[in-house]
Write a structure and sequence with these properties.
The protein has about 60 residues and is mainly alpha-helical. The chain has helices at about 10-25, 30-59.
Amino acid sequence: MVQNGGGVLRKLAGWAVAVALVVVVVKYPSEAAGWVQTAASWLGFVIDGLVTFFRQVGN
């Protein structure tokens, strides 16, 4: 039979990560915003690189 979701430990780990993120955002809002901005910028570079790669492959 297929289980719905993960085990208890996996769910606890997910909740622990979520609580830790909320604590970081509440205690250090400007640093958290900087981290998100940096991550978004990095993601943009990755997407640009992938687009460039696929354009070159298509030529």
